[in-house]
């Protein structure tokens, strides 16, 4: 239970980083994804999402648009969740 405030703060920070990327397409996609899923991500998944957000906007856009293969070091269950979300988006 002592972990909950830390996780909530982390989720809010990641939501903000998702919405204000600098690339409008990624702002919209990542913002909508974060709003839909951030509350359910556990600490390990938040780590994966944080690594995803560290990638360049161009890389994320190309992966989501199917213009580039996701490199193995960037692949994660959270990225796969984003790719599935994009289909519904």
Task: Summarize the topology.
Elements: H1 4-19, H2 24-37, H3 43-54, H4 57-65, H5 77-88
Helix pairs in contact: 1-2, 1-3
Q: In brief, what are we looking at here?
A:
The protein has 89 residues and is an all-alpha fold. It is 71% helix and 0% strand.
Any overview of this molecule?
The structure is a single chain. With 89 residues, this protein is mostly helical. The chain has one domain (4-88): Flavinator of succinate dehydrogenase (DNA polymerase, domain 1, Orthogonal Bundle). The chain contains 5 helices and no strands. It has helices spanning 4-19, 24-37, 43-54, 57-65, 77-88. Helix 1 (4-19) runs antiparallel to helix 2 (24-37) and helix 1 (4-19) packs parallel to helix 3 (43-54). It is globular and about 40 Å long.
């Amino acid at each position: 239970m002592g972990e909950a405030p830390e996780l909530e703060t982390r989720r809010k920070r990641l939501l903000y980083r998702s919405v204000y990327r600098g690339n409008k397409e990624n702002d919209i996609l990542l913002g909508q994804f974060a709003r839909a899923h951030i509350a359910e991500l556990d600490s390990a998944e938040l780590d994966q999402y944080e690594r995803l957000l560290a990638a360049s906007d161009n890389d994320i856009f190309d992966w989501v648009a199917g213009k580039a293969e996701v490199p193995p070091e960037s692949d994660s269950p959270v990225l796969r969740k984003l790719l599935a979300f994009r289909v519904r988006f």
